[in-house]
Amino acid sequence: MRWDSLFDDLESQLEHELNADEVDLRAEEERLRIGRLSLRARLAALAASRVDGRIIRLELLSGVVVAIRPITFGKDWLSGDLVDGSRRDSQCIVPTAAVVAVLIDRSGVEPSLRSLAETPERLADRIGVAFVLRDLCRRRKAIELVTTSGSVHGTIDRVGRDHLDLAVHETGLPRRESSVSQYRIVPLERIQLVRIDD
């Protein structure tokens, strides 16, 4: 009888240690998974969840907070509808380097940590912000360019590797040589937000 108790006790201890090792292993795997998450992945997971109607609030380098309903995530940028009371259906592009913080409440933490189902890589996943700005340049779209020092309205004339040329003109006017008040060469790293005029 004593041997049966001893073996039951040893079996119980062994099972407890095996379960503890398994729990520790799962916890370590989760720490490693979270350690590999990028800001882009967390933003995409948050946008895919239904928290806050898919609106993400971002604090930019200047301290300005913007609310965006994300549509596309690129290599180093995101685009979407800017949700502010001033303009209707305004679209924007935000370089992820311009994001100081993603402002969420407690209910948004867990969804932001979820891994999205493995989907084949899309072309947009590999496109950098300079490529997107070149497309705006090609289309001659009027934009509001928000930088670390303020905002200015104009049309992108050209985009280099690490900068763009902006022809500054009044809102609502087409880009004509006579309406351009100045030209600015802006480093891409200073861009916080590009608001696309409709």
Structure description:
The protein is of the alpha+beta class and 198 residues long. It is 32% helix and 33% strand. The protein has four helices and ten strands. It has a ten-stranded antiparallel β-sheet with strand order 5-1-2-3-4-10-6-7-8-9. Helix 2 packs across helix 3 (106-113). The mean pLDDT is 84.
Tags for this entry?
SH3 type barrels, alpha+beta, 32% helix, 198 residues, 10-stranded antiparallel β-sheet, 2 domains, 10 strands
Largest sheet: 10 strands, antiparallel
Shape: elongated
CATH class of the largest domain: Mainly Beta
Q: What is the helix tally? A: 4
Mean pLDDT: 84
Query: Roughly how many Å is the radius of gyration?
Result: 25 Å
Q: What portion of the residues fall into strands of 2 or more residues? A: 25-35%
CATH structural architecture of the largest domain: Roll
Strand order of the largest sheet: 5-1-2-3-4-10-6-7-8-9
Q: Compute the separation of the termini in Å.
A: 85 Å
Estimated helix fraction:
25-40%
Number of domains: 2
| SSE run | HHEEEEEHHEEEEE
The low-pLDDT segments are: none
